[in-house]
Amino acid sequence: MATNTPEQVTLKELRTDLVRFMMSYKFALEEINTKLNILKEEFQYVHDYNPIEHIKSRIKSPESIFKKLQRKKLDISLESIKQNIRDIAGVRITCSFVSDIYKIKDMLESQKDITVLECRDYIQHPKPNGYQSLHLIVQIPIFMSDREELVPVEIQIRTIAMDFWASLEHKIYYKYNKEIPQRIVNELKEAADTASRLDRKMENLHDEMIALKQLDDEVAMTFSPESLQFLLGHKGIKT
Ligand code: 0O2
Prior knowledge:
Blueprint: H1 6-47, E1 54-59, H2 62-71, H3 78-84, E2 89-95, H4 98-109, E3 115-121, E4 134-143, E5 148-159, H5 160-175, H6 182-222, H7 225-234
Parallel strand pairs: 2-5
Antiparallel strand pairs: 1-2, 3-4, 4-5
Bound molecules: ligand 0O2.
Ligand 0O2 binds next to helix 5.
């Protein structure tokens, strides 16, 4: 039987290490997705409302990891990736309203096996180009057959309007390899401001509807159906 050369053995070991290494990020994503789906379902049941519109997750490709290592002038090794690249596992959550973003952040922070390592609030402090989102780097434990690992996951939380802007802005930059003309940069910033105004407007409308519904419920609780019918009849309103 042919035996492996030392190079082949090293290569095989490296491959096993790499597969095992990437596996922990895949499991971490699965854990976070399960947590988010539980929150989504339970919140809908208890509050009759769903703060999570959409969840998307991805594992960073080896090419992107490699590019990031190069961009940051870091060592190319598994240890270096582990220490420096914290967005290998990434989840993007889209919500209807800005207040939902902070609700989700609070719910995640209060889970005792989740540690928030970093929080970048690009909603309170948008990037100069207009980019808005809340970025969390969380760490969760993953239990394997022979060990427990603490794995970082990047969670981006944004509204539908913020997501719409970021996706299109990314497409514009991705397709155009040269420097973007200043006029386009300015218009993109304006579009981000418009998206932000739309977010505020939709949230105000939502709050007004909640207040109206509460008032309706209070009226219904205060008056019996008979007295309500009498009062409405008195006002000439048919029920
Ligand atoms: P991908 O494929 O989306 O993952 P760092 O991670 O700290 O080294 P950075 O850029 O300082 O690098 O981190 P930051 O600001 O938290 O942003 C990381 C991710 O946020 C990016 O991932 C984008 O997904 C998103 N993002 C940040 N700024 C912008 C922006 O101006 N426009 C858009 N469309 N998205 C943005 P990656 O690594 O670029 O790639």
